[in-house]
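Entry 14. Structure prediction run on the chain below.
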Amino acid sequence: MKHLKKLVILIPVIIGVMLLIVMKTNKKPPVRLENRERVQAVRVIALEKTSVIPRTIGYGYVGPDRTWQAIPEASGQVVFMEPTLKKGAFIHKGDLLLKLDTRAFGLAESKGVAEVMNIDARLKELEQSKINTEHLLVIEKKALTIASQEVTRKRKLYEKQFISSSDMEKEETNFLARQTAVNNLENKLRLIPTQKKALLAQKRSGESAVAERRLDVSKTEIRAPFNGRISRVNIEQFQFAPAGTVMIEAESIDRAEIPLQLTPQEFIKLLPRNFSKSLGQVPDIETIRKAIGISARVKLPLGKDKIIEWEGHFSRTGDAMDTATGTLTFFVTVDNPYGNIIPGKRPPLTTNMYVGVELSGQPLAQRFVIPRSAVHGTNLYICTPENRLKIQPVTVEFSMEDLAILINGVKEGERIVLTDLVPAVAGMKLLPKIDHEKAVYLKRQAAGEKI
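Output returned:
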C-alpha cells in the first residue's frame, strides 16, 4: 500500500520532467524583425489663391420700418369707423379710418364765419361813410366860404351902421356853425383809418378763429398716413374718444427692418481692406453705407431643405455698444416684404419672424482658403515634396463658417494636410492623396455659391 502511494506521487513528476526536456530540445531562436518606417495615409489639397467674399450670419426678429399711432387732438364721439378696421387688416395711404362728431366744431365755425361777415359789412359801411363825409365836407367848405364872405360884407355895413348889431351877431353865429361843421367832418375823416384798422384786426382774429375751428374739424378725421397693416384697435364705433388716447396702431408694409447683434470683429471682417478714405467729420449714413458696400440676404427656413430668401441691404448701425454682450446692433432693411407671396409656399416677411441674415462684404482677391479644421492652433500641417510632414506656423486673417483665410506663412502650390494626425510628428512619412472634390468645394464656398 505504501509503495502504491509513492508511485502515484512520482509518476506526475517524471512526466513533467520529460515534457520540459522535450520542449527545450524543440525550442527555436527568436526571429529578428526589420526596422521599417511607418507611413501615414493622408488627404491633401494644393494651395491656390482665389477670390473670397467675406460673410457672416446674424439672427434677429423682423420689425416694421415705420409705426404709427392714431392719437386724436380733439375729443368727440366716433360717428364713423371703417368696417374692415380690425387687427391684421391692410390699409392704404389716405384711407378714412375714423371720424369723430363735428357738430360742436361746426357750430363754432358757423359763428366765426358770421362774425367775419358782420365785420365785412361794417368795413363796407365805413367806406361808404368816408365817401359821404368827403362829399359833405366839400359842401360845408363851400358854405363856409360863402358864410365868411357874408360876414365880411355885413361887418362893413355894420361899421357904417346900415345894419343892427343883432344882425351882425346872427351872421357871425352862422359862420361859426359852418366852421364847426367843417371841423367835425374833417375829424370824422381822420378817425376813419383808425376805425378801419380796428375792424381789420377784428376780421383777422375772426378768420383765425374760423381757421382754427376748421382745423379742429379736420382733426376729427383719422386717415392712414401710409400703406400699412393694423396691429392694434382700441376704439369702437359710437364710443367717446378723448383727446390724447391711442385709438389705432399700424405698421408699414413697404419695408421691413431686422436688427442683428454682431461683435465688432465679425463686422470688421466685412469691411473693405482699403477702407481708409476720410468720410468727413459727421458723414451721413448713406455715404457710409455706400463706402462699406455690404449686401444682405434674409433667410427663413421652412423645413429640412426649404429656405425662403429675400434680398436686403445694410441700412445703419446702432448708436451704442451693448455693455452686457459686447455687441453692436446692425439694421438690415428689406423692401417690399409682402411682394411675391405664394399661398402655402412663400409667406410674407411679417413682424416678429425669427430669421437669419447673411451679410456679405466686397470680394477679396488673392487669398488662400483652407478648411478651418486644417488649422491646428497657429500651425498648419504641410506635406513636403519628399512626402514628409512639416509643421508650419501661419497667420489666419479671419474665419467664416468652416473656412479659414490665411494672410501669410504658406506658398502657392504647397500641399496642406486635411487629415487629423495623432500624433503629428515633424518629418514623419506621409502617403498623400489629393482631394479634388474638397478643393472645388472650398472655391465655391469662398465665392459664396450655393452648395
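The first strand starts at residue 39 and ends at 46.
Filed with the rest of this week's runs.
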